[in-house]
Amino acid sequence: MMTFPRQPESIQSHLKISPEVQRLLELGNDSLDGEMVEAILDQAVRFSSEILTPFDAVSDKVGASFEGGRVTLAPGHDAAWLMFREAGWLGLEMDPDFGGQGLAKPLAAGVTEIMERGSVAFGMLAGSIRGASRLLALHAPETTKEEWLPRLLSGEWGATICISEPDAGSDVGRIRTRAVARGASWEITGEKIWISYGDNPLVTRNGHLVLARIEGALPGTRGLSLFLVPSGSAPREENGVTCRRIEEKMGLHGSPTCSIGFEKSLGTLIGQEGRGLPTLFAMITGMRLQVGAQGLGLASAMLETAVGYAAERKQGGPADKPPVPINQHADVRLMLLNMATNVETFRGVVTAAASFAELAEKEDSEEARARAAALVRFLLPVVKNGGAELAWNVGSLALLVLGGAGYTQEWPVERWLRDCRVLAVFEGTTGMQGQDLTLRRMLADDEGLKHFCALFESELSSGQAPAPPWAEEALQLMREASRWVRESSRTQCELEAAATIFLRFTTIVLQTWSAARLVNSGSEQLAAIGAAWGQDVIHDARALLERAMVSAGRLIALAKD
């Protein structure tokens, strides 16, 4: 029977076999040294399993509450946060000059995956702080950096991302929050919703990154600017920022999702006027990588739970003999194999995306940095949405493996399923990721796609053994999809109709690329998993490509009717 690697060993293996990680080592990134990687991942596993996992069960049951205009968190949240801060987990890949650890992004992604497995609700605050820190490091005035970055990365202060409003969710251009100049500062007035940890007792000050429209600015997204608006825990430090309510949610009960009001709140302009959305994308890149790691962490937890349960639970077998473990039944074995191949191949995609993000900053030539950045833009929609779908699909199968037990609160699978579904919503919905991939990365800016196809082809032709036929077909299908999208007769309506299906199709192709790497990894265990993936899903890729084309045609026909 095929065996599956556990999460930390798998992360180490992917870092070891990744050509991009090898390139980072050549460029002198010492944090990717094998012994250091093992030590850091071991510490992450210990913290996640000993602190976050038991905390998550409590926080799900108790949840956050809102009374008297303030948020209260579950018992133990403050202690867990203090330990997290003191251990230095917040500043994983940030500059040591500001209190960060300076780890390479692929290793930081592995640590994030392990931590999110322990508690996604807990990790929501850390993710916002890291994202805000990256943005401020790139775009804030020097005085703002010096004041905020050390305190953010120590966990003393927190940060939020304030984009959505009651009438402006994905339609960001309709934002009504306004900004009025007051000397060197700006007065911000408006309401923002879906703000994770918008109010909480874990930090003494919050920095709200707020998208707002300066009076007289252009309509739509071009008129938006970005502001850093502070609020403190003491009444005299509130700065006109109030929490109006928190949401009652399907999952992530331990993470307060706030509606925040701003009433003439003083803030600092970050970046240029009218460039709020492009400035914010410095943060979005890291946040979407985080969603991929979140989904991967939850999927790993659900896979290992199902594997353990299937080895212990005994049912069936010959009537004249003792019952056998359910992992001996073909249907259960197929579900476990499906889960494991999805997890392992997607881990390769996340490792590659994080590595390219690092190379986009660290490569030694402008051309190489531009190539890596283009690959990141191409991979990001798949990483973000793929992590969301991975967790949901693997969790659904894990529940089936556990049967009735999986549907109860005695086992954590039902909690993880509730927690993971929002991954397909925040940081850009599935439909938005599909349109980003299809309309931008396959059409308007297809440099990343071209680089990916060239890389895939090069790897298939340079291996010591002949390339697997399924890998060659995956590359052929990707090029076929690209040609279809770029045909001059395609309408916007056709492309939008096919976008989400193209997103799922491209996810399969990227996981197949990852599977081909596993086949050539030198590890019998990973090679077997890679081969099992490739042989199983290539038919799915072909079917999805055909379905995308058919769906677009059907929508056009309906529109004409």
Q: What can you see in these coordinates?
A:
- This is Acyl-CoA dehydrogenase family protein.
- With 561 residues, the protein is an alpha+beta fold.
- It has helices at residues 7-17, 19-26, 34-62, 77-86, 105-118, 120-139, 142-154, 276-312, 330-362, 366-402, 413-420, 430-444, 447-462, 469-486, 492-519, 524-560; strands at 65-67, 70-72, 157-162, 178-182, 185-196, 205-214, 224-232, 241-246, 257-270.
- Strands 4-5-9-7-6 form a five-stranded mixed β-barrel. It has a two-stranded antiparallel ribbon with strand order 1-2.
- Helix 10 packs antiparallel against helix 12.
- The chain is globular.
- The chain starts with 6 loop residues before the first helix and ends with a helix.
- The mean pLDDT is 92.
Compose a concise summary of this entry:
This protein is of the alpha+beta class and 561 residues long. It has helices at 7-17, 19-26, 34-62, 77-86, 105-118, 120-139, 142-154, 276-312, 330-362, 366-402, 413-420, 430-444, 447-462, 469-486, 492-519, 524-560, and strands at residues 65-67, 70-72, 157-162, 178-182, 185-196, 205-214, 224-232, 241-246, 257-270.
Strand order, main sheet: write it out: 4-5-9-7-6
* Shape estimate: globular
- In percent terms, what proportion of residues is strand? 5-15%
State the end-to-end CA separation.
Answer: 55 Å
Low-pLDDT segments, ≥5 res: none
The helix/strand order is HHHEEHHHHEEEEEEEHHHHHHHHH
Rg result: 24 Å
E-strand count: 9
Round the mean pLDDT to the nearest integer and report it.
92
- Helix/sheet category: alpha+beta
GO molecular function: flavin adenine dinucleotide binding; oxidoreductase activity, acting on the CH-CH group of donors
Domain Acyl-CoA dehydrogenase/oxidase N-terminal: 79-156
Protein name: Acyl-CoA dehydrogenase family protein
Family: Belongs to the acyl-CoA dehydrogenase family.
